[in-house]
């Protein structure tokens, strides 16, 4: 493993241009990759969120990342458990390169979290990179994670916050992004969910609201052209009742909520929900239904 790690210093020509632009850039970064370099895709998107994610957070993040395939993106995250891990794995599943920024050294004896060592190896073997500003064998500390967050946001034009409670490391990364003159994107959630308190507040403060991959592409100035499918309700042949149910599903909802919001007789609403599930337009996760 050690022979694949290259140290790049601030004065080197291969030092990432994006990091030169931020306040307090790292003096050096160690890059573990096939060629000792970061992926050379056109667009970098940073993704952050809570370790204690919900089924909703996982589902919408996977859907968004899948929608970025084919648009020359690299996904950047911190390889922590939770949303970070989902971001990296979703990128790999969709053949999108990904970069993990560690809060520890890169040595397998200190790499944190230990259970993601295999994930780190998969990132590298797929053409991505694992990077750190810390010495090879430095263990993670309480301060190293907030400090490395400025690199996560600094590498990308925008940072997407998926789920974040009011006190969250993801919000620290969003603050770094704003200080670095980067864009902040946020996925909205239920007003009753503590995981959405931080993201909803970011949206109130001016972060771009993201519900789909198309919203991310638009933030990067990528236009899909006339006639490109922008949503399931616009591209499928739906009855008025089916459309009414789907319009109620801006977020995951249980069957009782869907029936109540549809204002249909219970048996009629249940029948439509069943048909939508059979057609693969919605799916059930736990007790809630979500759009696919």
UniProtKB/TrEMBL annotation:
- The Smf/DprA SLOG domain sits at 8-220
Instruction: From the UniProt record, give one GO term of the biological process aspect.
Output: DNA-mediated transformation
The protein's matches in InterPro entries, at most eight in alphabetical order, are given as:
DprA, DrpA_SLOG, WH-like_DNA-bd_sf
In terms of Pfam families, this protein maps to: DNA_processg_A
What NCBIfam families does its record include? dprA
For this chain, the family text in UniProt reads:
Belongs to the DprA/Smf family.
Its recorded name reads Protecting protein DprA protein
Q: Which organism is it from?
A: Candidatus Giovannonibacteria bacterium GW2011_GWB1_44_23
